[in-house]
Design goal:
- Strands 16-17-19-20-21-22-23-24 form an 8-stranded mixed beta barrel, surrounded by 4 helices.
- It is of the alpha/beta class.
- Helices cover 54% and strands 18% of the residues.
- The protein has 4 domains: 204 residues, Arp2/3 complex 21 kDa subunit ARPC3 (Orthogonal Bundle); 158 residues, 2-Layer Sandwich (Beta-Lactamase), CATH 3.30.450; 155 residues, Alpha-Beta Plaits (2-Layer Sandwich); 194 residues, EAL domain (TIM Barrel, Alpha-Beta Barrel).
- The chain contains 30 helices and 25 strands.
Length: 848
Amino acid sequence: MSAIAPRPSSPVIALRVLALATVLGVLGVSALSTVIGEQVPVQGRHLPWGLLLALFLVVEASVLHVQLRREAQTVSMSEIPLVLGLFLADPLTVVVTRVVGSALVYALYRRQAPLKLTFNLALAFAEVSLGLAVFHAANGDAGAVGSRSWLAAYLAVAASSILSAVAVMFVISVYEGGLRLQELRSAVSTGLPIAGLTATLGLIATNCLILSTETAWLLAAAAVACVLAYRTYASLADRHLSLERLYRFSQVVGSTPEVDEVIRSMLAQARDLMRAESADLVLLPAPGATSGLRMSYDGARLIRHDAPEMAPGAWLRGQVVDRATAQLVTASGRDRDPRDYLALRGIQEAVVAPLRSSTGVIGAVVVADRMGSVRSFSVGDVQLLATVANHAAVALENGRLVDRLRHESLHDALTGLANRVRLEATLVQGLQRYESGQSPGLALLLMDLDRFKEVNDTLGHLHGDLLLREVGQRLVRTVPPGALVARLGGDEFAVVLPDVSDDQAAVVVARGLLAALEVPTTIEDVRLEIGASIGIALAPAHGHEVGQLLKCADVAMYAAKGAGLGVQAYRPELDQNEPGKLVMGTELRAALTNGEITVHAQAKASLATGQPTGMELLLRWRHPTRGLVSPDEFIPVAEQTGLLRPLTAKVLGEGIAACAQWRAAGLDLGVAVNLSTRSLLDPELVDDILRLLDEHSVPPGSLTMEITEGSVMSDLTGSAAVLGRLHDAGVRLSVDDFGTGYSSLSYLSRLPVNEVKIDKHFVLGMRTDEQDAAIVRSIIDLGASLGLQVVAEGVEDAVTWDRLRALGCDLAQGWFLSRAMVLSEVPDWVAAHVPRAGWPSVPLARAQ
């Protein structure tokens, strides 16, 4: 499955397009230099430059537009005057008239943006120069008109067409983040026949004019008739295509209940339907907010931004929302407000349509900048987007998604504080304010609570959750006006202080926060004292980018924690790299290719019968010098170095393939795979899993994905969406390490899980610690009441096995049953593992 590359920033796009235009200009100059001084091939038949210019103007202004998927295939018939010029004008005249004609049409008629105009003129110059060079090289000393000159003309037109297709696909790849070779081949294979047809018409026209200039009237009449006929056909075809896409759009946006899926599908389909470069969904501000929410789709993920254009009094709200009318706005319009809006967004034209719900207008859909070289959006496009917006509003209203989307997309589910998305958006806005001279800078405070894990481990996650809420409330009460408080996950919080340029002011605020936290609190009749460590990073002193500020604040926070300082501002000398992790990352990458990483399996069996039911898949790394490296060491390194995805692909691929082999051999064994927090954020995870299951013909129910509570709670909304897709596909879901806290209970009803696995520390301790035994018993009872299968990890002796069976636990896993084994050993182990009389008092067969 191919990944979609991230879309580059606007300055990078502009530089790349200008570089491509420069390359085209150099190519054009080189080609033109080879034909300067060449004579008109047909002596005595010289086409006036004014007439040739007029022909280029007409064909460029009267394009025929054909839509092929996302690309706009434009047929301008510029090959006809080009072929005429090849035979009836000198090369310099042909180049000048083509470039001047294109410039007049692009600048005055189509009103193209400067960047697009520069690229298109460079392309026109390169096309005509290359065509002339190929024609004169192929024609050689042959006569003016004949089979050789016709072939030379066809070659010239083909070279120009291929150059145009390649250049256009390259510039599209700049905007969309990657070159798609299949689409390039399609563009070339589509463009060549069209260019050949128009070249044939040009040759017919050339021969007629050489025969008699009076045939020009007949040629003009025939050309007008062909253009009108084709425009009628193209209009009907385009209308039919729009109806098809509108039908598909209504199906797609109504096919999923998930918020992000609805928005993502709506924006992607709207962009395709309107043949536009971008599509955004803009929502009105939530009650009490000063700006709305704007969402865009870059082909890979949804991107959220604040939308001040939807604030009360803003133009977009006044014109579209308050009046509830769709409209077309252009950069050349008379009204200043829409021009300012387009300039702010960096676009030339846009169609804007309101989103209407049962309670009124809730926002707008904004589609910007038509793809291809057509002049503009039309009145029909405005009506079409209004229809699209109505469908989208119905989909959002039916799912009651809007209010939930506003809150969940920008707020932490546990504390109600801002989440990482809103934090990063606030940092971006603060940096932009600094760059525009509106602010002296900002401060980022990153905070980690001290001894929070002890609270969780001792009192449980219920007390931990209540403590986190209390911390959030104290931070909000303590920070100065205008500051943003966010929870990033776990016990990590952040504060953004706007308009702060020196660390002393930030330190004063940080010490005030520590003082507020140090006041003891009582949670469920338990008196707790809270401590914290705070790291400070400043913009612009410590960075001009969000990632750099977060890194510096993180370094400072760990320095404060390590030195017991409470508060620490970032200093460059604090930033020490960890060479060991860098080395391990390099070695891990090599280990993936040289076979050091292997997939092992540990059996799970029914406590009632002793029958093996499945295998948990485990990764093992046997390092040539370090020996066996624990997954606890190399999995975090894999997450940091981008190797987690290939590791996950390896264990899924080999495990599902082995499961298929076992099933073919008559062994009804499922497989279980652990998912990390980072894996749940992978947008291609579900598609990869379903593809592997289908490829090996393994039923989805034979695969269990194990998740930890922590991985789900780091992004409950996103995790629930991924797990929901897996559950709907039939994949089993298990909560691993269950019992380490009690907040799990409140989320089990929200997650489509099939089983829970009791944390092995409780199972190991149940023989000697009655509290552990009570926790195990309560989890088994909970699982039975919720209809969940319960698995006990860490079963290492027959006494524990017997006790778990007596308590009604379903499955067991541990060394008493089997150690981890390579996948190829599983069939032999199953064959040797036959439940016997007296089970399970006798030792079980084990794989060593």
